[in-house]
Amino acid sequence: MADPLSLDEITRQLEDLPGWEHKNDKVSKEFTFENFRDAMGFITRISYEAEEQVHHPEIFNVYNTVDISLSTHDAGGKVTEKDITLAKTIESLYNN
Amino acid sequence: MADPLSLDEITRQLEDLPGWEHKNDKVSKEFTFENFRDAMGFITRISYEAEEQVHHPEIFNVYNTVDISLSTHDAGGKVTEKDITLAKTIESLYNN
């Protein structure tokens, strides 16, 4: 079970994650794409990584936008290292 | 461009769509699955139908749940026949 990160630690980690925000005990980012297909492709790529990391984001899609929010259920819904790891993976998918 | 449906017409249409609700000018339903993979498979199947109908739902996924909300942007964000058609398609995907 992962421990919740301190606010300072979350702030420090988000310095390496441009556009990600910490609010409501989650780290979140809204991604925008050319169209629905590209948005759906991104969600699909995220889904494989989520299964591999045994950690699943909240995913909200409307047409060409994808909102991702991460927190750790087993840590009382707080942000843990697992969320930072998955955020970094998602960020790298977006940039590749 | 589709015209907004009347409240009576929406109510009548939802009689054929068990579990679907009309609220905040949208028709919505929460679907639950065995696991994340099944939820993601459902989203993927919806995505092809959405492209074919040139009409896209709001999709919210957390692990094994998928919330779908439908309204028509071109009709001022109101519910139209396009939403009912897509809702029926999504319902049939869920049941097959």
The chain pair forming the largest interface, with residue counts per chain, is: A-B, 15 and 15 residues
Shape of chain A: globular
Return the CATH topology of chain A: Gyrase A, domain 2
> What is the subunit organization of this protein?
homodimer
CATH architecture heading of chain A: 2-Layer Sandwich
Strand content of chain A: 15-25%
Q: List the uncertain runs of chain A.
A: none
What do we call the CATH homologous superfamily of chain A?
Transcriptional coactivator/pterin dehydratase
Average pLDDT reading of chain A: 97
| Highest CATH level, the class of chain A | Alpha Beta
Order of helices and strands of chain A: HEEHEEH
Largest sheet of chain A: 4 strands, antiparallel
Span between termini of chain A:
31 Å
Secondary structure: helix percent of chain A: 40-55%
Architecture overview:
- Two copies of one chain form a homodimer.
- With 96 residues, the first copy, chain A, is an alpha+beta fold.
- Chain A has helices spanning 7-14, 36-53, 81-94, and strands at 21-23, 26-32, 58-62, 65-70.
- In chain A, strands 1-2-4-3 form a four-stranded antiparallel sheet.
- In chain A, a hairpin with a 2-residue loop joins strand 1 and strand 2.
- Chain A binds chain B through residues 36-37, 40, 43-44, 47, 50-51, 56, 58-63, and chain B through 36-37, 40, 43-44, 47, 50-51, 56, 58-63.
- Strand 3 of chain A pairs antiparallel with strand 3 of chain B.
